[in-house]
Amino acid sequence: MEKQWWQEEVIYQIYPKSFYDSNGDGIGDLRGITEKLDYLKDLGVTMLWICPIYKSPMDDNGYDISDYKAISEEFGTMEDSDRLISEAEKRKIKIIMDLVINHTSDEHEWFQTALKNPKSKYHDYYIFKDGKEPPNNWRSVFGGSVWEKVPGRDEFYFHSFGKKQPDLNWENPELREDLYKIVNWWLEKGIAGFRIDAITFIKKDLTWADREADGADNLARCTKAVRNQPGIIDFLNELNEKTFKPHNCFTVAEAAGVGYDELGNFIGDNGCFSVIFDFRYADLDIASGSEWYERIDWKISDLNKKIMESQLSMQKYGFSANFIENHDQPRATTKYLKENQNNSDAVKTLGAMYFFLKGLPFIYQGQELGMVNFERKCIEEFNDLSSIDQYYRSLQEEYSKEEALNFVNLRSRDNPRVPFPWNNEKYGGFSQNKPWLSMAEEYPKINAESQIGKSGSIYEFYKSMIGFRQKGKYRNCLIYGDIQPAESSENVIAYKRFTETEEIYCYFNFSGKNTVEQLSKGGYEQIWTTFGEAEISGDKLILKPFQSVLLKSKP
Ligand code: GLC
Ligand code: CA
Fold first, then answer.
1. 197 assigned to active site
2. Of residues 59, 148, 197, 278, which has the active-site annotation?
3. Which pLDDT score is estimated for 521?
């Protein structure tokens, strides 16, 4: 793959509603982010992905946009947004925005016009079908039919996600041109690119044929018919040619459903995006990747296998986008470390394991503090649409209330969305007033202030790991080197990063016991560890519980 300007970025994801509230209304905002830029600079990240800040009724916390060229009032103004971009730039931090173009809010003017006047051109900006009954049995991602009745008419509109998120009709060239104008308008403001939401949903199976039901609701998961459908590449290439490519911007796509054999269309020299997220190892605890009640028991060796398969597939074409958390996933500590979620050595090993993979590391807010999932006592305490839907779906599938609540606690998207704990004061110093979403603890024990500058803390660990990767002696190999799995014992993940002139072996012990690893030859130098030193004796490496080491092999 040809060298690109964005390959050395370390990206930090911000969920604006929950990052920092500058004016005491309980909701995080743009000024709040600007005030905390020095914190991010200190951590060492080089790019921020900011979740949607556009005008929105916030049914899905901004993933339901009612005006692409306006900022949501609770977040601030367009001036605040311009100022955030320029203040970040002063600190050499780039900004990417979230681009939600599979759907809009039902409150978007286009949709409102389409409802009011079915003869207007905007009617064809969405997907409407005539009839007295829903046109098919597809289930939306957030539950219930994908079809919602238009009040007062024998007509339905289509939504892959929530019913306040009608899908745009990408088959319509006029709609596509309007979207490209919006994309270019934002790029011209000086942002570095986009994280692109749900982009594999833009092409649908146009036969709209029923599918075999797969739940007690008698509906069929829509993803097989609306995700990564044949023909999508033409839309994606056009989008790229008319927007991203002329600006040479960075793009990371949420591209669920893409097969490893198709990656060449998506990333690398001939792909329409810079990188895409792969959810296979993020969703290894649930069977279909979508139903939270279909829990799967997995082992470290399964995680290892999934990660390596992903890495090897991605590297055939380009770089990958490496993450363990985001605003839709539970906290990685709880998910991957289970009962060891509060063991800081385990948290560091998890952080290091994905951080030194080949590709761009993404860090989600609070991950650098080792935040963990909460446990809520009843469904009324949740805000997230999807949590509420999954709870009632679980009951419908005949799980008990306790089981349903447990599934939701484990997977809820509210887990990562709780306010960021800046200190151990009331509401974690996030706001002077009650936050929009309740925290796990009002006076959080895990918080930034108690970790900054404290040696051995998870924050300081992340900071030094970022520095080591970005500025250390081995940066070239750690950023650009290829990856290959290495032999390891059952609870250890191991891989090799290498260039023509360098070789670095990376070992991550996910067990609470010493392990013995077989090295392929003698003569290794330890160049980095999560703590202390590991023991090397002859061709054996002895790792302490939850210890990680990077070894350089001597030529
Ligand atoms: C993506 C977003 C998620 C949102 C959905 C619908 O999956 O990450 O938060 O709910 O798209 O826009
Ligand atoms: Ca606020």
1. yes
2. 197
3. 76
pTM of the model: 0.98
Q: Which atom of ligand 1 is nearest to the CA of 63?
A: 12
Positions in the chain whose pLDDT score sits under 70: 555
**CA-413 nearest atom, ligand 1:** 9
Provide the 3-class DSSP secondary structure of residue 63: coil
On whether the CB atoms of residues 108 and 65 are closer than 8 A, the answer is yes
- Which residues are placed with Cβ below 5 angstroms of ligand 2, an ion? 21, 23, 25, 27, 29
Give residue 555's pLDDT: 61
> Helices 344-355 and 458-471: crossing angle, nearest 10°?
20
Q: Among 66, 104, 161, 414, say which to mutate for ligand 1: greatest number of ligand atoms within 8 Å of CB.
A: 161
- In order of 22, 87, 322, the CA distances from 9 in angstroms are 28, 18, 12
- Among 217, 321, 212, which Cα is nearest to 273's? 321
Q: From CA 164, how far away is CA 206, in angstroms rounded? A: 22
Give the whole-angstrom CA distance, residue 333 versus residue 458.
12
User: Which of 254, 368, 384, 517 is the catalytic position?
Assistant: 254
Helix (H) or strand (E) holding 275: strand 275-277
pLDDT of residue 139: 97
